[in-house]
Structures are given as C-alpha cells and as structure tokens.
C-alpha cells in the first residue's frame, strides 16, 4: 500500500496543472484580426462628445463581454443623463492578490469630416490601418484591454488577480463619467490595487524606439478668469474708466513672468533615463538636469523644448480675452481667462497669490473656473511596474522604461483618490510626428500591426503581474 502511494505521488505532481500547462496557446494573428473588427465596429458607435451617447458604447462592449461569459454592467445612466453610461466588468481570479483595472474613456472629440481623407466615423480598414476618431484616443486602448482580457479567459490561465474592465463616459469634457463611477461604486474598486489607462506613450522617432513611457504623474489644470469693470461710454472720448487697457497691462505683466523651475523626482528620473539616447554634452546635461539648469547654454537648450519646459515648471497660457464687441464702445467690463498647469508638488493658493502680485492691480477680480484635481504621483517600486519592464524588455532588449510627466489632464487623479496605483500606458508604438498630428486632429488611425502588438503587450503585462 505504502509503496503504491509513493508511486502515485510523482504521478499526482505531474498531473497537477502548472500555470503554463493550464494555459491554452493564443493564436495571436487571429486575436489581432478580431481586435481590428471590434475596433472598426466600436468607432462606428458614435460617441462624439458633446453629447457623448456613451451608453451605446457601453452596451456594445457589454454584449462582447457577455458573449465571452464575463459579467458586465452598464451603470450610472441615472446621474450621467439620457444616453450616457459607464461600463464595468470583472474577470475573476482566485482572489489571492488584489485586482488590476483596465480603464478607458468611450467618448471622442468631434471630428471635422471635411479635413479627413475618410469618413471619421467609418471605422474603415484600409492600407494596413483602422481609421477613425478614437482609434488612438482611446478606443484603440479599450479594444487592446478588452481582447487581452478575453484572451486570458479563453486560454484558461489561472489568475491570482481579478481583471476589472471599466469604460467611462465624458473624459474629454467634464470627467463626469469617472467621477460618478468612483463616487457611486467605491465597493467595486475596493480590492483594486493597480490601474492602467491613457497617459504614457511609446514614442518612435524616425523609426527608432525612444522609450516605453509609464505615466506616473500629471500636471494639474487650474484655470482663472480675470475681470476688470469700468464705465461704459463712447470711444470717441477716451476715459480713465476704460477696463480694457487695465486688463491688457496686467496680462502683459503676467505674460512676461517666468515661473520658477523645479525638478520633481519623477522628472529627474525621466531626464536621467533619456540621457542615454543623447551624446556628448547634451547627454551630460540631461543626466544632471538640476545642475544643467544653472548653466545658461544648457538651460536655453532644455527649455526650448516645449514639453521639457512644461514638465519643469508651472505654466501659464493667456488664452481668452474679451473687451468690447464694438470698436466705438468702451465696455463696462473686460475679461480674460488663463490656463495654468501646476506641477503635482505646487500649492494652488501660493501660485495664485504670486500671480496676483505679478498682475499688480487690486481692481482685478479673480475667479477659479477650474479647480485642480488631487495631485497625481505614483510609486514605481511595484509588481505592475516590474511587469511592464519585463514585457517591454522582452520586445526590445535594453529598452528604456521611464516616467515622463503628462502635461494634459486625464481621469487618473479621480481613481488615485481611492489609493489605487494608477499608471498611464498607451500600448502602441507610434511615430512622434504622426501622433502629434492625429491626437484630436485629422486622419486619426492605428495600424493593424500596432493593434495586435498592443493587445499582446497588455496580455503579457497582466500575466507577469500575477
Ligand atoms: Zn483620451
């Protein structure tokens, strides 16, 4: 009996499925083609914001998930308004580790069809690309997330972490989708440890990979309206009560103002990392950006890059100016709006007090028209960051995985409020110049190759983070 048991033990050990054995292989070409079809169909679901109509997008995604046997819910229509909704789905693991969420926004910015070579809502598949509004911002991400999750389910991989799939309404205008989701369903996010969404590029410059960007921090949007009141009168008799010159003088002082430079830890790491892509003096400057900023030549070169300038300081752009609507009328008031973007470390009250001093006119009324969200900074010493590094280096040995700061705004701070480690990662390798042109621009498209590549990249990251 004993001997028989001993003989059985090795057999049991062999028969017990390991993670690798239990996984059925994925047909990556078939999965890529499936992603192409899903993205093409998804682009045709018109979620242009305004008005959004994301409920149609949510139902489109929910139908695919349910066909795969993954539970999905269309939520929040009652607070987002008719035709608008968020989507939530979950693929169950064994629960021994906390969940990973994949998040995208379903809404897209409007497209001016006359400037496109194809119908922007056609989802046309041509010349190796899927064309249409949202292909890269960010329905393409949503489809890569979806197919990676579906492939994990089909392959039977034993997951230690649940995979949560969220599609939000209204990122492009008011962020009301993510805010409603986080406020109303904290219990659905309670076990979520990590979250991946937009905000980290994998830029290619002239065919050469620059780095894998993981967005761990972003600037904070802080908008102000400045108002000066005066006495309306006929412009043929100039008066001192004209509010326009007062406002213009204050704006000129603000425009001249150079905000202080500050190197945050993530930005310092980013410059040190990318210095490897440069040579000679430039390499030395980037490797020690704090030191370089004290050197006039280095400082001028670094700040001449509009992106680098924007991640090294709070920025101020004067944008809206309104005085009179008639050339011959002195108006009762003059109004301007300025777009301020704060570093995560900046204190909004201190920045505003400094600006009021610079403007030097106590007759100006200042109003905050967009208050900054929670500061976004995330740790990099995590299992998910290591999984991203591993997946990146398998594809590009020696690849740089770094942490550029995002200068625009995303839904990440809304999720970060709950303590979730929230990374920006757009899983596509796109030429810099092409990316600049297409993002909210014309002829937005994603190559079929990239879509397949990105789906597999997300799949591997989810697998390595188990
Ligand atoms: Zn976006």
Can you tell me about this structure?
With 466 residues, the chain is α/β, with parallel strands linked by helices. The protein has 3 domains: 25-216 and 378-464, Zn peptidases (Aminopeptidase); 219-254 and 316-370, 2-Layer Sandwich (Alpha-Beta Plaits), CATH 3.30.70; 261-312, no CATH class. The strands form 7 sheets. Strands 1-2-6-3-7-20 form a 6-stranded mixed β-sheet, with helices on both faces. Strand 8 (202-205) and strand 9 (208-209) form a beta hairpin. Helix 16 crosses helix 19. The longest helix is centred in the first third of the chain and has 17 residues, at 28-44. The radius of gyration is 26 Å and the shape is globular. The model is unreliable at 1-21 (pLDDT under 50). The structure holds zinc ion. The site of zinc ion has 5 residues, from loops.
What's the arrangement of strands in the largest beta sheet? Answer: 1-2-6-3-7-20
The number of distinct β-strands equals 22
The residue fraction in helices comes out at 40-55%
Query: Any idea of the CATH topology of the largest domain?
Result: Aminopeptidase
Number of helices: 19
Tell me, what is the CATH class of the largest domain? Alpha Beta
Bound ions, cofactors and other small molecules, one mention each: zinc ion
* CATH architecture level-2 label of the largest domain: 3-Layer(aba) Sandwich
Described by the principal axes of the CA atoms, the overall outline is: globular
Measured on Cα atoms, how large is the radius of gyration?
26 Å
Secondary-structure-based class equals alpha/beta
The amount of beta strand, in percent, is 15-25%
Average pLDDT number: 93
* Unreliable spans: 1-21
CATH superfamily of the largest domain: Zn peptidases
Taking the sheet with the most strands, its summary is: 6 strands, mixed
The separation of the N and C termini measures 39 Å
Number of domains: 3
């Amino acid at each position: 009996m004993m001997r028989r048991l001993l003989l059985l033990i090795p057999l049991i050990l062999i028969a017990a499925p390991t993670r690798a054995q239990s996984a059925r292989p994925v047909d990556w070409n078939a999965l890529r083609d499936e992603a192409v079809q899903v993205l093409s169909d998804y682009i045709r679901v018109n979620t242009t914001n305004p008005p959004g109509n994301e409920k149609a997008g949510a139902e489109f995604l929910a139908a695919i998930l349910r066909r795969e046997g993954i539970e999905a819910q269309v939520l929040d229509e009652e607070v987002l308004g008719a035709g608008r909704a968020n989507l939530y789905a979950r693929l169950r693991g064994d629960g021994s580790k906390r969940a990973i969420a994949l998040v995208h926004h379903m809404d897209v910015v409007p497209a001016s069809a006359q400037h496109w070579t194809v119908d922007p809502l056609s989802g046309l598949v041509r010349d190796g690309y899927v064309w249409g509004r949202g292909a890269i911002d960010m329905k393409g991400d949503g489809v890569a997330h979806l197919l990676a999750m579906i492939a994990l389910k089909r392959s039977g991989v034993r997951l230690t972490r649940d995979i949560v799939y969220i599609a939000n309404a209204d990122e492009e205008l008011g962020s009301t989708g993510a805010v409603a989701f986080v406020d109303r369903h904290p219990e659905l996010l309670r076990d979520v440890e990590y979250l991946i969404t937009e905000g980290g590029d994998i830029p290619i410059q002239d065919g050469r990979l620059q780095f894998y960007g993981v967005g761990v921090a972003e600037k904070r949007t802080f908008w102000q309206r400045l108002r000066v009141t005066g006495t309306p009168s006929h412009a043929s008799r100039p008066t001192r009560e004209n509010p326009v010159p007062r406002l213009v003088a204050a704006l000129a002082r603000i425009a001249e103002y150079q905000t202080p430079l500050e190197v945050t830890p993530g930005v310092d790491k980013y410059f040190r990392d990318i210095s490897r892509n440069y040579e000679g003096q430039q390499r030395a400057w980037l490797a020690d950006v704090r030191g370089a900023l004290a050197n006039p030549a280095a400082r001028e070169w670094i700040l001449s890059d509009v992106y680098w300038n924007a991640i090294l300081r709070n920025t101020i752009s004067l944008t809206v100016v309104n005085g009179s609507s008639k050339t011959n009328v002195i108006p009762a008031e003059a109004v301007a709006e300025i777009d301020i973007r704060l570093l995560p470390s900046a204190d909004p009250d201190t920045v505003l007090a400094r600006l009021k001093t610079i403007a030097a006119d106590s007759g100006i009324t200042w109003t905050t028209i967009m208050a900054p969200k929670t500061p976004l900074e995330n740790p990099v010493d995590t299992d998910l960051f290591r999984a991203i590094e591993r997946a990146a280096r398998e594809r590009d040995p020696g690849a740089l995985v770094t942490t550029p700061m995002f200068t625009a705004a995303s839904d990440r701070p809304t999720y970060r409020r709950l303590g979730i480690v929230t990374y920006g990662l757009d899983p596509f390798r796109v030429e810099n110049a092409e990316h600049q042109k297409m993002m909210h621009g014309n002829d937005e498209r994603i190559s079929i190759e990239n879509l397949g590549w990105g789906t597999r990249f997300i799949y591997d990251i989810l697998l390595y983070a188990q």
